[in-house]
Every structure is written in structure tokens, then in C-alpha cells.
Amino acid sequence: MIDAFHLARVQFGFTVAFHITFPAFSIGLASYLMVLEGMWLRTGNQVYLDLFKYWIKIFSIGFAMGVVSGLVMSYQFGTNWSQYSAKAGPVIGPVMAYEVLTAFFLEAGFLGVMLFGMERVGRKLHMFATCMVAGGTFLSAFWILSVNSWMQTPAGFSVGADGRMFPTDYWQVVFNPSVFVRVPHMVLASYLIVAFIVGSVGAYHLLCGRATPAVRTMFSMAMWMAAIVAPLQIAMGDIHGLNTLEHQPMKIAAMEGDFDPSGPDGAPLILFGLPNMTDERTDYKIEIPHASSLILTHTWSGRVPGLKQVPPADRPYAPVVFWTFRAMVGIGFLMFGLGLFSLLARWRGRLFSNRWLHRAALVMGPAPIMAMLCGWMTTEIGRQPYTVYGVLRTADSISPIALPGIATSLAVFAVVYFTVFGAGLMVMLRLMAKPPSTGESGLDPNLPIRSAGIHPGLAGAVPPGTGAASPLPAE
Amino acid sequence: MSTETIATIWAGLIAFAVLAYVMLDGFDLGVGILFAAERGSTDRDTMVNSIAPMWDGNETWLVLGGGGLFGVFPLAYSIILPALYPTILGMLFGLIFRGVAFELRFRARTAIGRRLWDLSFFGGSTVAALCQGLTLGGLLQGIHVVGGQYAGGWFDWLTPFTALCGVAVVAGYAWLGACWLVWRTENSLQNRARRQARVLGWVMLGLIVAVSLWTPFLNPMFEKRWFNWPGILLTSPVPLLVAGLVVLFHWGIERRHHLTPFLCALAIFVLCFAGLGISFFPLMVPPDITIWQAAAPRASQLFVLVGASVLIPLILAYSGFSYWVFRGKVQPGAHYH
To answer: Structural domain boundaries of chain A?
Structure first.
């Protein structure tokens, strides 16, 4: 099993799993920051500005880690998957070029102003910069998911004699059959990620007895988001499943652990079991009659596919897909449960005093990230053995790089990612461990003195007491 | 427009993205390289602060270069990256360390932690620059291709020529960085940067001459391009202009101008880049694969070209705006980073 091909897959999986966590956090957090700044401008309430300044420090670290780990991804296609690049590049390369042109530059161009420009530009312009960064992260999600969706449900192209693909209709390439389920599913996931992290940090400070207005505000906002977005995400997941059933039936069969296609009586839902690829059956299964038909076709005895419909070489590895899918769904329902719990506590007026709610919110901080990673594993491993579903096999996508090269680079990636991003994560956690303070300082708590900086425009425009353009540090 | 014309325009646009990257990230990598010569912690903070608001935007040009190559010249992308695998990965690792160090060096709580992040800022910047030079050299000296795939060995890219290119890019970026600091800082830091810029200016001149004399002999086509009539009409002004700019640069340094040295250094980079372009055109992957052979189908190229013609001017406009917001001398202790 240890060959260049599998190690290249491990390397891509490892680098992309590390990477996606940061942008998912950035997409949600940029939107949250946009809301906070908007609320501050609208109400003039200091609490929103404090929260904005508190979370932007954490955002800046997460964003930087997303940028550098993303840079790796943009070259990984060529270094480890050069045949894929040469064959599919003519179709999806241009879509990725659009991501760079519309999203990356937008984020990067306005990030400096958003992070460091509060004292250098007017309030409205700063708000504009924040919106551009948030918009850039959203556009980036759209384009990259469009590329991923195309690989799952390819459309708008033809294949030449040499295996190279040619675009025939870019509208169909970009708006391929699964883009409209993947984009919302991922954007909602990143909202949940931020809601639960903000909620977790708020809960931590509430448990520590620091129920300041800022802590209460962030906890309350986060719990609203959890209560609203978690059920939306479950509904979106259902729609996504129907789409996958239509376009990638073998992935559904692997997710469900179904080897035999269902008969006329409908398919039971296998709650738990151990899919066995060699013997072509799922061992030790616990089933609910008709439930699979009900979920997948929304009818009592609808037909559900089975892995035996295709030769063994064309089947995804079901044991992983089966379990990652269950983990994602299970965590999803736990998140939904926390949202309900918070609504109940809020209705009883105990949102800020129910310690069980705070404990649950604290431990569930990383839950959406785990759900997202499990979801991605389900969809990516479930797509195997193809990189472009039904068109290009993963085995025919690889670079002519020998085992030692890939093994060495994978080892270096592992060491570098765990140390560098581990250190970054520690710093983020350290920042989160401190509560937001009134008159929260700007980005750098270590160097708060602006001796002779320029403060054009803003200094006179801000009402006294808001602390926005105060050249003096609060700490 | 013919397919050939579109491919040529795209080659120009990607060359522009790479040039923009070299000019912009060049000076901010250079500031990282110069950390080696700077001991004072306040001055180091000022150095980092001078580039903090723009480094991310600068680096995006590299993503455009890579992404653009993938989009419109997938064949070149799929050959160059496996061939130069170690140098590309080396560059990425360097950029990871330095990108994260931007944020984390300010947040280190202990002196040792701070020193480690400073080291990773310096080391990352230097390794990234070195690997970019090695990549450039590896591409210039040619890549062994059979049947549209890289067919060379693991260390083909490592030769005396590529090593020279690596050193040249490190020195060149450090030089740009020193000139940037002359422009954006004051007092003792500026004075030190001026001395560094002067020395590095001479070093760079020597390296430019060495690389320029070596390149034509890598490939008979390069040689013909540079020394044959009528090509020489196009090529001879390049060294003359470089000589003129070197004189102007040292004049600016001696007269203690703030901006002149930086502009001269950038202009010299543009000329060197133009020189490379003269050697290269119309090759995409020396010694054999041309722009037109490497190009994606017409529909792919046209699809991005439509967007790029609107978006690139827009990007230049708002990037320029961001530079303008952070204009002026960087104050020690200014609290953005």
C-alpha cells in the first residue's frame, strides 16, 4: 500500500485538511466582523467595537495561516498531480484563475486597511474595506467549490483523443449540477464554525465569572447563529444528499454501506455496521426498515443504489466513507441540540446563568470543524477512484515523482505544519483565553504607543468616549 | 483574434504577474533577509511594520503567476512543477515560516520565542528567495521532457548556474529591501539601510553581469537572440540602460535621496526581467516547448482574458490605494504590524 500514489493522496489530504480549516474560519469570521462593525456604526455601542477589535486579532492570525497554507495548495496540483493538471487544467484552471483575480486580490488588497487602517481612513471607508474582505472570502469559497463541484459532477467539456479535456461551455462548467448545493453547504459550515468558536469563547468567560457586556453579547449572538444555522445546515445536507444520489450513486452506496441495490420493497437504513469490501457486505449491521428510502427518495420504498452495480475497481472504499458520514451527521445533530438548548435557556431567561449550557457550548467549540472535515472526507473519498468523476482516474492523475521525493516532502509538511500552525493555534487560544476589555486596544497589545502617527480624517469625526481613534492606549 | 495572439497576450500577462511579484514581494522578502544584519528589536519591529500592510497583497501575485500558468498553460505548469519539485516546495516552506512569523513574532511572550520567530522570518525569507532563484535558473537551463512529461532526475535543477541564480536573487531582494527601507524609515535605521543598499548595489551589478554573460551559452537560441543582427538592435540598449541606472542609483545614494535608489533598483529589475524575456520568447519551457505548444485551448484562454482585462486594472487600482493609505515614513512603535 505504501507507494508514491497513496503517499501523494495522503499528502494532498493532509495539506488540504489543514488548509481548509483556516479559510472556513476566515469566511465566517470575516462576515461576523462585518456585522460587528456594522452594528457599531449603526448603534455607536462601544461593546461592538470592543468585540470587533478583539476578534480581528484572532482573525489576522487565522487569515495569515490560511494564506500560506493556501499557497501550498495552488502549487500542489502541479507538483503531485501533474497529469491531472495537464488533462483537466484547460477546463478548471481558468476557473481557479478567476478565484485569484476576483477573490484573493480583493481580500489581500483590503486586508491591510481592515487590520491596520482604522486610524488612517474614515469610518465608512474602513467599513467598506471590511466588506470587501468578507466579500472576497465568500467569492473565494464560491470559485473553489465550483472547481470541486466540477470534479464531482463534471459538465460543459469534451475529452480529446489524448485524454485532455476541452471546455465547450463555461457556463455549465462553473454552474455545474452540484455547485448550488456545495456552496451553501460549505458557507453554512463556516458560519457554524465561527458561531461555535465564538460561543465557546463566550461560554468559557461566562464560566470563569466574567459576564461583561461584551462576553454576554458575543455569547448571545453565537447562540442565535447556532439555533438558526444548525437546522438550516441539516436541511441543506438533505438536499445535498439527493443531489449526490442523482449524480454520484456509488458515493451514496458507500455512505449507506449498501452493497446490494435495493429491491422493490425499499431500502433499510443501516445505522451502524462494518462495511467489508472483500466479502461485499456490511457486517454487524443495525437497520431501520425503509428509512434509507425515506431519507434518500422521500418515498416509502424508493430505489437506493448498491456498490455491486459497478466492478470492484470502480468502488469507493466504503468503510471510511460510511463512518466519516455518520460522524458528520452525528455532530450536526449535536449542534442542532445545542441550538435548541440555548433557545430554551433564553426563553427561560437563563442564557447567561445556565452553567450546563455554557459547559456544552465550551466543549462543542471545535465540533463544527470536525463535522466539516468528516464531510469533506466523505465527499472526497466517496468520489474515488476518480479525480474527475467518471472521466479521469486518480491513478492516471499523478506526477512522475518517485516515492522518496513524495515521502520526504510529506514528512517535512507534517513537521512544519504541526509546529508552525500548532504555534499559531496556541497564540489564537491564548488570545481567546483573555476576555474582551472595554476600550479594547488595536491589533498589537505589546506595542500600543503611537507616538507621532498620522490620524487623518477620523480623529475629529468620532464622538468622545467611543475610543475609536484615540491615540492613547487603553491598557 | 487568432489563437496564437491570445496565447502571446497571456504569456505577457503571466510575465507581468511574475514581474509584479518580483518587484513587490522582492522588497518585502528583502526586508526579511536584512534581519540578519539588524540587531535592535525596535528597528526590527519598524522594518516589519513597514511591510506588514502589503505583504499579503504582494504575495498574491505569486498565486496569480501559478494559477495563471495552471489556467492558460497547463502543459507548462504540469512539466515545470514536477521538474523543479524541490525548489518549489522549498519556496513554499520558506513562505510559510515567514508568513506566520509576521503575526507571531509580535505575540511571543519570551525572549527566546521572539528570537525563534525572528529567525524564522529571516530564514523563511532567505530560503524563499534562494529557491526562487534556483527555480529561475532551473527553468533557464532547460527541462528534459519526453512525451509531454518531465523525464529528468531528482537533482537536475542543481547546477553551478542555478546556484549563481539563487545567490543573485537573494542579493537582489536584499538590495530592494534596503532601498525600500531607505525610502520608508528614518534616522539610524535609514542610514544603515543606505550603507547596505550601496554595497548590495555593487554586489548586484557583479551578479547581473555574471548571469547575463552565462545565460547566452545555455542555449544556442539565447545566444543568437543576443548577439546576431538584427536582434542586437533590441538587446544592446538593455545593458546600456542598466549602466545608466546604476550611475543614477549611486548618485541618489550619495545625495541621500529617499526614493531615487528604490526606483532605480526597481527599474533595474524590470530591465533584467526584460532581458530574460528577450532570451526566452517564444519559449515557455526551454529548450523546446513554446508558448503556443503549452497553451490551453482557445476557449479556456478567452474565458479568463475577458475577466482579466477588467479585473487586473481594478486590482492595480485598489492595491495602489492600499499603498497610498500606508504612505509616509513608518514611525518606530507604530502599532500596526
So the answer is: 1-177+402-475
Burial degree of A234 (CB within 10 A; 0-12, 13-18, 19+): middle
- A286 φ/ψ sector (left φ>0, alpha ψ -120 to 50, else beta): beta
CA pair distance B325, B336, nearest whole angstrom: 13
- Domain spans of chain B, in order of start: 7-325
Please determine, for the modelled complex, whether the ipTM score is greater than 0.90.
no
DSSP SS3 for B150: strand
In chain A, what are the helix, strand and coil shares in percent, each to the nearest 5? 70, 5, 25
Please give the Cα distance from A327 to A27 (Å, whole number).
23
SS3 state at B172: helix
Minimal CA–CA distance to A26: which of A73, A72, A65, A69?
A65
Say whether B333 and A65 touch across the interface (CB within 8 A). Answer: no
The number of C-beta contacts closer than 8 angstroms across A and B is: 258
- Number of Cβ atoms within 10 Å of the Cβ of A38: 15
Q: pLDDT tens for residues A112-148?
A: 888 888 878 888 888 999 999 999 999 999 999 999 9
Residues of chain A contacting B79 with CB distance shorter than 8 Å: 82
Its pTM stands at 0.86
What's the CATH number for B7-325? 1.20.1630
- Rounded CA separation B57/B3 (Å): 31
Ranking B23-32, B40-49, B245-254 by mean pLDDT, the lowest is: B40-49
Cβ-based contacts of A113 with chain B (< 8 Å): 53, 322, 325
CA–CA dist A62, A258 (Å, integer): 40
Phi, psi at B144, each rounded to 5°: -80, 115
Which chain B residues are Cβ-neighbours of A106 within 8 angstroms?
A: 318
Distance spanning both ends of chain A, measured CA to CA? 57
Going by C-alpha positions, the residue among B219, B236, B240 that lies closest to residue B228 is B236
Three cell numbers at A184? 451553501
- Strand A165-167 and strand A269-276: the pairing is unpaired
Beta strands in A265-363, from DSSP E residues, in sequence order: 269-276, 281-288
* B103, amino acid identity: E
Interface of A with B in 66-105 (CB under 8 A): 67-72, 74-75, 77-79, 82-83, 85-86, 89-91, 93-102, 104-105
